Amino acid sequence: MIRFAGYTGVVFTLLVGIVATVLADLVEPQHLMIAGGVLPVIYGSALLALHPTHQRIGRWPVIFYGVGALFLFPWLVLRQYFGGFSLSALLYHMQEGVQEGMPAGTILPVLAGGVVVACLLHSVWFLFRRLPKAGAWLSFAATGLVAVNPFVQSAGMYAYFVVSGQEPRVLSDLAPVRVSQPSAGKNLVLIYLEGIEATYDKPDLFENAYQKIAQLAPEALNFTGVAQMPLTAWTSAGLVASQCGVPLVPRGFASRNRIDNAQSYMPGVTCLGDVLTERGYVTEMFLGSDASFAGKRSFLETHGIGHIHDIDELIAGGADDLGNWGVLDGQLLDATLDRLSELEQTDTPYFLSLLTVGTHGPAAELASECRGEHTAIEQDDILEGVRCTAELVSQFVKAAQDVVSAEDTLIVLLSDHLAHPKVSAYWDLSKFDRTNTFMVLGGGIAPGEVSKQGAMIDAFPTLLEMMDLPSDAHRAGLGVSLLSENPSWVEGQSDWLMRQRLRMDADLVSHLWGGDQVAND
């Protein structure tokens, strides 16, 4: 009876680990915390109940399994908390660092996920050692671990391209940024909406959460075909894509130039801040979070952003409405509006941007303006956050329109990326062809709708063109102006093909991160 209970506990641990990994997009952080606390107790008790005898196994199957488990472990742990987590995002965050600015509320679920994965991998090892021909079974399990490892899959894909004669070449598609206009164009106010995609514009399904943003569309030029291409699915990647015209291609573990987080960031590409700084713009960005998180500070400082107002400066200035990710959207927008008013009193052109935080997820974080007396900051329903941020951004836009010169200033609303898989509305969003928010108001731009298929990389040349600073041939990096008749880079390519081409082109990585910059005029 004791042995039966012991094996039941081991099998239960195995099943819980598999479910938590396979269905990672559905597992909430609080459930992960519970599993991380309870599972070791159950599994440890099960091991104590079982007799320690097992089949004798040769050294190599054990080593093979150990190596396979070790290299898969970090991938599985991050998948537990973040859901569908790409290899590119894993590489990027490992390189740029997450220790600064990572909310404490995230650390514990990630650690709990590590415990669950450790129990899962050990339970497989424990059970297979007790089967007849245990060495063969353990080798079989190790082969499975190696086969699903994303690094191994990437290597296999590269071999496929080489053998088939379709080795990817993306670098030749990269266009230099050549802006012939030497003086300043229009001012730019760029509002990044954290994970607030245009797919939310379905009032019945999403409870009018997006309504306040949708109500701005009649006075805006609305780009409705901006999808999410590979390597642009997290915040830093969205910033790079929309300001530099390239996806955030990781440097990789074997790249030629190992660049520290505090040093030059993608020096081989010219970005929006670079172009505007050369023409005398004041360039600033407001972040409610820590700018050092995931390399954002390094990116912004490398590419022409002269002043970064992040959580420390905002708190020093009196901000006190704080969530897990930093200063919440109400006070963030207020501080940005104050700075916008100051910039309008000068004769200097400016590029002022901000990034909201309330809809990062997995939970929504409501600013004080959206909370009742007894309403918690954190809400499981992401639609509450979308509704709150949409209302606050709408108020900001209307206030900004009263401050700026309508003909000389563009006000742009842009998703940083599509909503993450962990947010509560994800499965409803996934029923549709999802697109990012991209609206442009003011600056003498006629309202209307542009349905051309594109991606975040196309925002860069499109913004340049609307600022009266067009790049040659309407191209910048891999981006193509959505106002031109030229096909965008993503048209005619599947996500799978783009992902493989971008990941396999070592010359592209060397160019972007090694500083072999294409000449720009």
**Helix content range of the residues, please?**
40-55%
Give the termini separation. Answer: 79 Å
Sheet with the most strands?
Answer: 8 strands, mixed
Treating each run of at least 4 consecutive H or I residues as one helix, how many helices?
18
- The 3D shape can be described as globular
What does this structure look like?
- This is Sulfatase-like hydrolase/transferase.
- It is a multi-pass membrane protein.
- Residues 186-468 form the Sulfatase N-terminal domain.
- It is found in: Cell membrane.
- The chain crosses the membrane at residues 7-26, 32-50, 62-82, 102-128, 140-161.
- This protein has 521 residues and is an alpha/beta fold.
- 45% of the residues lie in helices and 11% in strands.
- It is built from 18 helices and 16 strands.
- The strands form five sheets. An eight-stranded mixed β-sheet has the order 5-4-8-1-11-12-2-13, sandwiched between helices. A two-stranded parallel ribbon has the order 3-14. It has a two-stranded antiparallel sheet with strand order 6-7.
- A hairpin with a 2-residue loop joins strand 6 and strand 7.
- Helix 1 (2-22) crosses helix 5 (104-128).
- The longest helix has 25 residues, at 104-128.
- The radius of gyration is 25 Å and the shape is globular.
- The N and C termini lie far apart (79 Å).
